[in-house]
Structures are given as C-alpha cells and as structure tokens.
Fold this sequence. Notes:
Number of helices: 8
Largest sheet: 7 strands, parallel
Number of strands: 7
Amino acid sequence: xxSWKNAHELARIHGDSFFVLDDELFRTNFENLRAAxxxxxxxxxxxYSYKTNYTPHLCRIVRELGGYAEVVSEMEYQLAKRIGVxxxxxIFNGPYKSVASFKDAALGGATINLDSTRDxxxxxxxxASHASVRFGIAIRCNFSLDTDDVSRFGFDVEGRDFKTxxxxxxxxxxxxxxxxxxxxxxxNLESFGRRARKLAALVPKIF
Length: 207
C-alpha cells in the first residue's frame, strides 16, 4: 500500500513527478464494479474507457477480465486491436470517427454508437457494399434531463434526424438496432438515475 514514507522514497528515486499503478487493486475494483451491477442485471458487461487512461497494461487487464474496450478515436481503436481485443468486444463512441476506422470496426463486429448523420451515412455506405454482412449498431441519444445538464453528443430524440436514422436502419435489410446510449457531463447519482429512466422510456417506443 502507498504511504507517505514510500511515496517520498519513490520521489527520491524518480523525481517529484511520477505515477504509481496498483494493478491488483485495479483488478479488484473492476471485479467489484461488475459484481455490483451483476447482482441486479446478470447480463451486464463493463466497457472500459480508453480515453480515461489508455496505458496498454491497464487495457490488457480489462481484456483478460473479459471487459469491453470503449474507444473514441482511431488511435484508441487501433490500440484495442493491437492488444488483441476481439472486434465484438469493442464499443466505438465519439463525435468523429475516421472513415477507415469506422469501416474496419463495423466489419470487425464492433458496436458502433452512431453520433451524427455523418456516422449514419458512413454506416449506410458500408452496409450497401457488404450486403452479406449483418451489422448491429447503437444510437447515441440526446435528450433533456430537466436540469442544467446539456449533452453535446448524439441525436436529439425529438428531432427529425433521430427519426431519419431509425427509419434508415429499419429499411436497410442488413442493419439492426441493438442498443441506445447517452453521454452527459454530470456524474452525480441523481443524474445517472434521470438518464437511465429517460433511456428506459425510449425502449418501448423504439423497439
């Protein structure tokens, strides 16, 4: 365990700026988080945010524990592939996805969260040129939480683009919608409750 005494000793050896990584504690935290959700939702999976800390050693631990790689850029996507994360265990988020990484991820079985009409256009193009492949995708939703929290990402669920995306997916034979996603800046427990209830209310309307 880290103490002031051994922290000062580390500083003496490495200088004032350094990181300390306890990979066993990381494993324990990951397993405890999954177990807490699994007690209520047996099918739960944890997607680890590479953006938060993409140190390859941590990402490999997540892969070993059966976790998903949640990536938001081509660089993070390539890292997940390099360390051996299977395509179906990659979740591709983010407001900008390069054409090459989008296509590769879709064909590799990754879950792509559509964030915009640009993503939708790329998806339709990939689906049209690979008619024998079935693509399961998700949509990043944007809605009011009845607070000051505002999301910069995703489709406004009351807007025309959202309805257009749903229609395009349903009308394309080799596409199917398998999930909904949202992203808001507030991290307090009440905010997560609000967004969970909003997404749950969308489910019977969409599926």
